[in-house]
Amino acid sequence: MRFAPSFLEELKARLPVSEVVRRRMKLTKAGREWRGLSPFTSEKTPSFFVNDQKMAWFDFSSGRNGNIFDFLIATEGLSFPEAVERLAADAGLPLPKVSAEAEEQEKQRAGLQEVLEFAARFFEDALRREGGAKGRAYLAGRGLSAETQKRFRLGYAPGDKFALRDALAAKGASSEVMVEAGLLIGGEDIAVPYDRFRDRVMFPICDRSGRVVAFGGRALEKDVQAKYLNSPETPLFHKGGLLYNHHNARQAAHEKGTVIAVEGYVDVIAMSVAGFPHTVAPLGTALTEAQCQLLWKMAEEPVLCFDGDRAGRKAAYRAVDIALPLIGPERSLRFALLPEGQDPDDLARSGGAAAIEEVLGQALPLVDLIWLRETEGEALATPERRAGLERRLAELCGAIQDETLRRYYAADFRDRLARLFGQAFAQAPGQARQRPSGGAFFSPQREGSGFPRRGAGSSAAAPSYLAAPPRIGLGLAQSRLLRPNASSTSGREAIIMLILLNHPGLLESYGEALAELDLTSSDAVALREKLLDLWGHGALPDHAALNAELERSGLGVHRRRLEGQKAHANLWIISPEAADPDAEEALKQALALHRKMRALNRELKSAEAALAQDGSETNLARLIDIQEQLTALAGMEAAVEGFGAASGRASGSL
Fold this sequence. Notes:
Layout: H1 5-14, H2 17-22, E1 28-30, E2 33-36, E3 48-51, E4 56-59, E5 64-66, H3 68-76, H4 80-91, H5 100-128, H6 133-141, H7 146-151, E6 155-157, H8 163-169, H9 175-180, E7 184-187, E8 190-195, E9 200-206, E10 212-219, E11 228-230, H10 246-256, E12 260-261, H11 265-273, E13 279-280, H12 289-298, E14 303-306, H13 310-323, E15 334-337, H14 344-361, E16 364-365, H15 366-375, H16 383-398, H17 403-421, H18 464-467, H19 492-502, H20 507-516, H21 522-536, H22 543-552, H23 556-563, H24 580-613, H25 617-634
Parallel strand pairs: 12-13, 12-14, 14-15
Antiparallel strand pairs: 1-2, 2-3, 3-4, 4-5, 6-9, 7-8, 9-10, 10-11, 15-16
Helix pairs in contact: 3-4, 11-14, 16-17, 19-21, 19-24, 20-21, 21-23, 24-25
């Protein structure tokens, strides 16, 4: 039976060699490798080594080596198809069906691969020709030499609308294949497909084996909608499951014992040139679970080195939430925080390897970044705010799946809270600690006052936190109260989406806010994905063209369902006729109210759980207060002075 190369590569990516070998023989960790006694010869000193980064095993006593398939064939006498079947079952992958259709799909993948390789060579040649002078000037301005450009296969996409198409057509590639590879933009309403990338510096994106599967393009003109443009999702390219420079960084990461993740293509290249070839980057998106797993295959504790600005901080904080459910013993993250306003490229050019080493040497463990996020910029002068901090930390601990690690995180946060707030938060003698999943780390013994019981010889002085409220640094963490909660559904989701559908130009300013918004409506989610795809590729149409595109792609039904909701059927401000300034004002209100409502519902769940555990008056009062806030918010009309002036109306509301 013949197996497609893509299927075999997926099996090797899913199953570390050490995991397969350990089922047959004992292995012990030896630095960045595993070692054990040879299964092929009789020996007392281990000479069998496994390297997960290289996806290979080596037996120096017998001179044999290979991959996971070779190991089963050599140790269990299986045939190659039997080894593949066994490993596919272990990986949870169904065996591909032998059919003419499957063979045709594999041929199609090979065809796409060939076209993408042709495109990479075309872009490389275009950069070196006379027409590529603008691209060369940009790269030289970023400090990237001709040698570096060649090493990373950088290129230039000419401004001509059909330059790439005509060059590939001359090699026999069809427009249909080029469209499917993400190189051309086509569709039923486009009579002649045209080049997706024009007048851009081109960065080829490779899979783990070094084969070109997509491109990233950096615009050279300032007025272009999307400064960076990636290939769309294709049969070969899934941006959430790949890392830029992964194929080059694997060996270097093995040798260095760590891997560094930065934000951009140029950052990766600058870091590599500065002496840090074990550097990779996500592909224009927040770090995904799949990308975390790829990083952990290269190193136990990758370092995330994001830009020293607000967006960089947000990216680091989002990575925390992605990683928490996935971490475990010998699998975590560290965070290198760059100076304000700098990115890795700036740091490499201004300070060189020494400056980078200094920043990496000060990388924070994951637990420290969580503490920083939850305390920086928070005013913790009242018991309520301190209780909120304690509860948030407990909820974060609850996201950790590994029980032992969860216990250690809870203990660490208890110690930090005690040091921050003093004796009032210290555990009473002999008191049993609660599990963090209950929403609190401490459960003081209560008397009538609700404060921890004092011993007979203790001072009658007021608790220290009342005398000296702690002061936390400014401006890094945002209030948790404004974070959305997935437990609440609101018609405001429809309002938000309809405003953007009828005024798509607002996505230029609110695309990131839409991407981060927590939505529960399947209609809203489907439409959001379409809008973000158009926004990300700099292809935002006007209202009429957008509606036509939604109908063409089968999404019109979702739009009509949102429009049919009675809650806002007569709300003029969401209509296409409303002036953009008024629509934008309404959008800002809707976003703020939606986030607040979701946050209060999250607070409500926590309060209900606290009251179920401890029916105190304090917990009851907190629950009632949140319910009152929700009632007030549900009936609130967000009136704005002068609202509607741009549309010829005196006032309006949500």
